[in-house]
Amino acid sequence: MSKLWRRRLLILLGLLVAYALRVYKLGDQNIWWDEGLSVLAARKSFAGATLWTAADVHPPLYFWLLWAGARLAGETEFALRYVTVIESLLTVAVMFPLGRRLSRKPLVGIGALWLLGLSRFHVWWSQEMRMYILASLCSMLSLYFVTRLTAERPSRRDRVGWVLATAGALYTIYSSVVLLVIENLFMLVVGLKRRERRKFWGHWLLSQLLVALGVLPWLMLALPRMRSWSVVQEPASLRFVLELDAVLLSLGISTDVGHYALPAALVMASVALGVFLLLRQRQGQAPEEGASDQSLLLLGLSVLLPPLVIWVLTQPRAIFYTPRVEARYLLPFAPAFYLLLAWSLAGWLRSRALRPVGIAIGISLLGLAAWSLPQHYAPRYLRDDFQTLTRQIWAYARPGDAVVLVSGNRYPLFDSYYDRTPAPPDRPPVYRIPDGQPALTSTVADEILKDIAAGHERIWLAQVERHLQDPEGYTEDWLAEHYARPLSCDFGYNNLSLFTTQDKEPTVPTWNLPPQHEVRQTLAPGTTLLGYDLLTREFRPLDTLRLGLYLRVERPTTLTIKLLGEDGRQLDEATLPLVSGEGVIRREAAFVIRPYTPPQRYHFELQAGDGMSLSLGEARVTHTAQAPDVDKIQHPLQARVGDTIRLWGYRLGGVKRGQPPLAHPGDTLTLDLYWETGAPVAQSYHVFTHLLGTAYNPATQGPLWAQDDQSPLDGDYPTDRWLPGIPLEDHYVLHIAPDAPPGDYQLTVGMYTLENGERLPVSGDGANVAAGYILLTPLQIMP
Q1: Where are the beta strands (DSSP E) in 101-253?
Q2: Do 346 and 105 contact (CB within 8 A), yes or no?
Q3: How far apart are CA 592 and CA 105, in angstroms?
């Protein structure tokens, strides 16, 4: 295979890898607030989207492309984000010609293409419905064309390309103005080495004038509509911005950046030393090759200036929008860093003595990508945030209904799902309460709701993070005072309620059928299942799995829904009483995924009375905790609490080895308890872990010198939700009082009822039946 074809193969393979990384789990994340605004803009008319963004903090180019993409491919998470994937892949592709032109080395361009393709930072924002990847594409195209404008006789196509790319960047984000600063400094240096510098600079100024003329119409439209406001509470320091930039470029991580400062510093140092080697290697080369020095200048400016400009733009000021420092603002010029990184690696590899170091740096960069990228994908999955909530409104809605939305500024999240296909075209209108008001008062609620109630017979109240603007619940109180509430469903912190004059269970109008999945199966005489909704398929610990059932019931019966694993194990069961009536009803079975639920596929088994059973649906449980191996417990026990709960043993940390273990006043003990129940536990119990001494503690009015009482797993896994036969690890922290006197102590554990403090009986190893606790170990406090 020739060298040319090997290069082409590397480019093609790099693009395929970059594409795969960007489409993997693309739709497996819920729309977040900024993306919700993008969706709302894309749903407007073209003129409406343009006018909306004129009053926003961003220019319109990205929203125009999203507007077109939504009409071509739909409004799913995958389809809307795919617009960004296309822009991202084009940016990766641009790395080869730009890198080759700057360095005059095709392998530098190929290396830059691969580095950007594997960049977690770039992959992250390639999977978001925002404009920063488009700004990056336009900026890199502008840099490419500006290097072509340095030729003795640049073509008209190059000038047009630069004008369009630069105008595109300015039409995407306003901070792209830094691009002009970078390129003007670059062209100033280039022009100083030209004989016909006036002509060179004249053509350059003319090109910029064309960009200004292209952007001017937008500025005339937008500037009068822009608001001056700020979200900055405490300005970020320049050091923080530079540190954040370094960690993002090296690892793609934006949280706890100080923790990753060392590896980021090593990457930056390798780039700086690589550039130094390049400059050393250029000594003695022909003068005509000096253009590469200018190329290094262009890349250096593109890497160093943007974080400085971002820091300046996020400082408090009186005009326009002042944002806080965010990772995304540093993305547009990130590809320039990967170009410089690839070129610096070439400097290492060209040195015979330092080539092994260069190889080690390259391998380390691949290792960082392999370590970092899985962490980006791990939290991505589609949760049932608003899907079931909005589907319930769609199912029950009748002419004359209205939706009252209490959400503060969270309305884009609700609207993005409520108005998405297959939303009924005649769905109830949404009234935002309060609309542009400060925190709601009872007087304002009365005035607003009276007007809404006058025009609608039934009112749906959707409360989405209501604490933002109606923390006292005035809206709900007013509706509850004037209407009956036949339907109410909680969705975590959110709630959906139907208020109407008739206090009877609502039915599903036939025109709102079919459900998500049609079935039409008779479960028992007089009970027919028409279909079901299962709006997400992956569930993680503490998620609620919601199965919505559409039924026609002619005889009273009881419907049992079992959640069964592929191993045949029954995870949970719900029982729904059904009464006869006319029409179609929608009932919902909700199952909370527990921390130790076995990760596997699950399905539902339905049975009405003594009728036939029916299996349907499929859900996948992932990322749950692995049950501990009871044979490897540090301190095994054979003890019991109550009738069914077994304590397998414990692990103790924060002590010095000894018989008994040793500790000091003020020390912190870590205690892991290993429980298991042999049968379902009927009640939720609190666990107590106490350090008891012989001396009196005035603070606790007894011999108690340290304690940690809580529901298991910090309340995430109460005993009445424990899965029989599956052990669990439960963590506690005990802070020994600083004034604890030296002497002998006992570390004890047990359970009690929170309502009355009554302790459960104990038995087995260490059991103190009279006191109701299990002695784990004696402990000695040393001075």
Answers
A1: 229-230
A2: yes
A3: 57
What's the whole-number mean pLDDT along residues 560-575? 94
Is the same domain home to 286 and 396? no
Band (pLDDT 50/70/90 cuts) for residue 280 is confident
Looking at residue 291, what is its pLDDT? 46
Give the separation between CA 692 and CA 778, rounded to whole angstroms.
9
298 part of a folded domain: yes
Strands 321-322 and 229-230 turn out to be parallel
Model confidence pLDDT, tens digit, residues 350-393:
888 899 999 999 999 999 999 999 999 999 999 999 999 999 99
Quick one: three-class SS letters along 150-184?
Answer: CCCCCCHHHHHHHHHHHHHHHCCCHHHHHHHHHHH
> 155 and 34 in one domain?
yes
Which pLDDT belongs to residue 590?
96
Specify whether 129 is located in the same domain as 148. yes
Does the pLDDT value for residue 232 go beyond 80?
Answer: no
Find the largest Cα–Cα distance for the chain: 101
Residues 353 and 425 in one domain: no
- pLDDT for residue 630 is more than 70: yes
Structural domain contains residue 505 = no
Q: How confident is residue 301, by pLDDT bands cut at 50, 70 and 90?
A: very high
Beta-strand pair 702-710/662-663 = unpaired
CB 632 within 8 A of CB 550: no
pLDDT at 230: 63
Q: What is the mean pLDDT of residues 173-196?
A: 93
Asked, for residue 538, whether it belongs to a domain, the answer is yes
- Domain final residue, candidates 477, 500, 523: 500
What single-letter amino acid sits at 736? I
Q: What are phi and psi of 84, to 5 degrees?
A: -70, -35
- Is residue 671 located within the same domain as residue 730? yes
What pLDDT is recorded for position 351?
A: 85
Asked if 141 contacts 165 with a C-beta cutoff of 8 angstroms, the reply is yes
Q: Do 361 and 393 fall into the same domain?
A: no
User: Sign of torsion, CA 219 222 224 227?
Assistant: negative
Is the separation of the CB atoms in 431 and 405 below 8 Å? yes
- CATH number of the domain where residue 537 is located: 2.60.40.2550
Mean of the per-residue pLDDT values of the chain = 93
Residue 719: partners with Cβ closer than 8 Å, 6 or more residues away: 645, 677, 681, 683, 684, 685, 711, 712, 751
How far is 564 from 327, CA to CA, in rounded Å? 43
- Give the integer Cα–Cα distance in Å for 38 and 130: 7
Look up residue 84 and give its two tokens: 């960004």
Last residue of a domain, one of 563, 587, 621: 621
Let me know if residue 42 belongs to a domain: yes
> What's the alpha-carbon Rg for the chain, to the nearest Å?
32
Question: What's the mean pLDDT in 231-259?
Answer: 90
Q: What sections of 55-105 are H helices per DSSP?
A: 61-73, 77-103
Q: CA angle, corner 58, sides to 54 and 64, nearest 5? A: 75
Q: What phi and psi values does residue 625 have, to the nearest 5 degrees?
A: -75, 145
Report the side by side order of strands in the sheet with 544-553: 517-524, 527-533, 544-553, 584-592
Q: For the chain, how many structural domains are there in total?
A: 4
Q: Indicate whether 102 and 219 sit together in one domain.
A: yes
CATH number at residue 636: 2.60.40.770
Q: Which two tokens stand for residue 747?
A: 């570390």
pLDDT at 581: 84
Residue span of the structural domain in which 392 resides: 387-500
Helices first, then strands: H and E counts in the chain: 20, 27
Question: Same domain for 470 and 569?
Answer: no
pLDDT at 435 over 70: no
Please report the pLDDT score of residue 469 as a whole number: 85
| pTM for the full predicted model | 0.91
